[in-house]
Amino acid sequence: MRGNPMAKARKSPRQRQLAKCPTGIRGLDQITAGGLPSGRPSLVCGGPGTGKTLFGMEFLVRGAIAYDEPGVFISFEERIADLSANMASLGFELDRLIATQRICIDHIRIDKDEILETGDYSLDGLFIRLAAAIDSIQAKRVVLDTIEVLFGALTNVGILRAELHRLFAWLKDKGVTTIVTGERGEGSLTRQGLEEYVSDCVIVLDQRIIDQIATRRIRVVKYRGSMHGTNEYPFLIDSGGFLVLPITSIALDYPASKEFVPSGIAKLDAMLGGKGFFRGSTLMVSGAAGTGKSSLASQFVDAACRRGERCLYFAFEESPLQLSRNMTSIGIDLQRWVQRGLLRFFAARPATFGLEVHISMMVKQVEEFLPKVVVLDPVSSFESAGTRVDALAMLMRLIDRFKVHQISALLTSLSAGTEEAERSAAGVSSLIDGWILLRNLEQAGERTRALFVLKARGIGHSNQVRELIITERGLDLERIQMGPDGILVGSAREAQHLRDLAAVRLSRDDLKQRKELLARKRIALKAKIAELESDFAAQGQDIERVIQQEITKQAELRATWTTLIAQRERATHKRGTGVRGAK
Amino acid sequence: MTSPRKARIKASGRVSREDWDLRLYVAGQTPRSLAAIANLRQICDEHLGGEFRIQIIDLLVNPQLSRDDQIIAIPTLVRRLPVPIRKIIGDLSDTARTLVGLQLRNAAVAVSGPGKRKPIRTRRKES
To answer: Is A489 helix (H, G, I), strand (E, B) or coil?
Structure first.
């Protein structure tokens, strides 16, 4: 994320001419496309307490640690010990950096009461002192905080202005990257018109209080010869120093995964083409109170944990334990994922901090835990921590972060009523990739929940309304049936279901009867066949017997005949003896 | 001139704590520096009589010395003694203002200096 604009800056020939000095301040190098103009002075101005000194100091500390550029801090206001103590609270070990000659701090104390001007003079003393400090550690970075003190101490403004011009020209010749801090003035950037001398890069720090919540902002007013983000960006001063939060990275160039993430409800995935949402996409679940948003989110988290993915759950209305307990009633045990280290809750009331603190804490959590799935439940509550526009901007920045890290995010949004749902969430619509709307349906004295997939970027999704059913074993979807009186949900659907069952049973009984009839007929048929066969067998035997008798008779007859013939022949033979002679 | 030096010390035998300790910071021998030195000499000779000590410090030679007296402008005349410390910046061409800065003129008119010893000292010098 941070590397991208820099890489781009390097590629462009125009950018190559202007060398940049990375500040190392988180997020700032992104909006300045690489850092402050190298070897030139930059002006950082702002009202009291906006973090000018810290800005300068962090520039030096980061330079000394991360970029091997020693730095000189010339303090006109705070004493070295105070500075050191202040910075220690932000985790910067100034004393060590001073001891190792990475940073040189010089406190120039100017007491107006001691000074009287007579005649012509120059600020060579300051130059010499500065040169000595720079040379002592071969400094590449210089911070002057704040040189405006000179205007208070010296009355000869003509000399002072000429000398300041000379000072900045001299610093440029020295090739040190300088930050000059300046107090914000009425109607001008700085009270003393420092912008007149430092014209390459001007950064304004600001702290505003809107609805009792303070928000710090940073803006690059001017950056000669370089592109830069011109917006006001919120920033924070947290335990790690400055944190500038660009609303979006300058380029819309985050990766797009083709991998799918199941929603945890098989039938919802089926509505989304069978696979779920794309990894790294942002889903919004909006609906009125009690439509099952948190349940849906929990189911999503549960499914992700089952896949072994790390989940971060930002709860803004319920405590983690309360949420876990409530989810056990629908058969989702979130606590076990917490114990296995796959799920982390982060609960905070939206009104506790400003949006900026919220976003920083969230970004910090995300960067520490590196989750694959993030749930924000609900995002609508942020409107109470800032204005709608601010809340939207914050969401945009967060979603941008998620996308860059390829984190799938599920946001829930509470809407007042059905029609409000669409309207209140319309602002975020452009940010989100998938939008599931939950609605209460009231019919026949019964409230049921309907689920619509309003939008799913890049996924062919079902346009049908489903009924969301919350059971003891999680969430489920049912097709909504059309009955004679319109759609059937809840108990009406159940009734229809029973009627359907009865009809089925009826026809099943009928079938059974017919089958039995068939079986009976088959048995009857078989009996008949048997009877016929036995008849046949009986008759057959008779016939056989007759035939047999006939055969025997004929045989006997033949035998009789044979005997007779034989007797006859014998008789003829006897006669024949005599006869034969006659012959 | 190239190193801090005592310009001159006159009228020995006085108690040292009552001496005036002046430091003139310059940077190189610029016309402005030379003018400041000349103007200071003249003022001291005319108004301080003998009891003073001048150190002329060239910051080009000893830059680290600029820290001691918090020098930002050149030339700067620092009155280290008597207290309180006073700094007069510029080439000291305006003698009247320089005297006011050194609390010589003011003290002479209204004897209400911040220190106890000062009125005595100035009286002595004026006499």
So the answer is: coil
Q: Name the residue of chain B whose CA is nearest to A133's CA.
A: B64
CA-to-CA distance for B2 and B75, rounded, in angstroms? Answer: 15
Is the complex ipTM more than 0.85? no
Query: What's the one-letter identity of residue A440?
Result: N
- φ/ψ bin of B76: left (φ > 0), alpha (ψ from -120 to 50), beta (otherwise): beta
B72, A110: Cβ pair inside 8 Å?
yes
Q: Do B67 and A115 touch (CB under 8 A)?
A: no
In chain B, what residues touch A154 (CB-CB under 8 Å)? 73, 89
Chain B residues closer than 8 Å to A151 by CB: none
Q: What is the pTM of this model?
A: 0.63
- Amino acid at the residue B17: R
* DSSP helix/strand/coil, A116: strand
Can you state the angle between helices A355-369 and A388-404, rounded to 10 degrees?
A: 10
**DSSP assignments along A272-309, one per residue:** TTTS-EETT-EEEEEESTTSSHHHHHHHHHHHHHHTT-
Rounded to whole angstroms, the Cα distance separating A8 from A464 reads: 45
Residue count (chain B): 127
A451: which residues sit within 8 A by CB, 6+ positions away? A268, A436, A437, A438, A439, A465, A466, A467, A468, A477
* Best mutation target, A109, A116, A155, A156, to test chain B (most B CBs within 10 A): A116
| Residues contacting A237, CB < 8 A, separation 6+ | A51, A54, A90, A216, A243
Residue of B nearest to A163 (CA): B73
> What is the rounded CA–CA span in Å between residue B122 and residue B108?
7
Which tens digits make up the pLDDT trace of B57-113?
Answer: 888 888 777 777 888 888 888 888 777 888 888 888 887 788 877 777 654 443 333
Burial of A522 per CB tally in 10 Å (0-12, 13-18, 19+): exposed
Which chain A residue is nearest to residue B94, measuring alpha carbons?
A118
Strands (E), A195-326: 201-210, 213-223, 232-238, 241-244, 260-261, 277-278, 282-287, 311-315
C-alpha dihedral sign at A422, A428, A430, A435 = negative
Q: Where are the beta strands (DSSP E) in A444-520?
A: 446-456, 466-471, 474-479, 481-483, 486-488
CA distances from A336 to A302, A305, A324, A340 (A): 10, 10, 10, 6
The residues that bridge with A282 in the sheet, in sequence order, are A409
The per-type count for chain B, helices as H runs and strands as E runs, is 4, 4
Question: Is the pLDDT at A582 greater than 70, yes or no?
Answer: no
What pLDDT is recorded for position A425?
53
* Domain over B16-126 is classified CATH 3.40.50.720: no
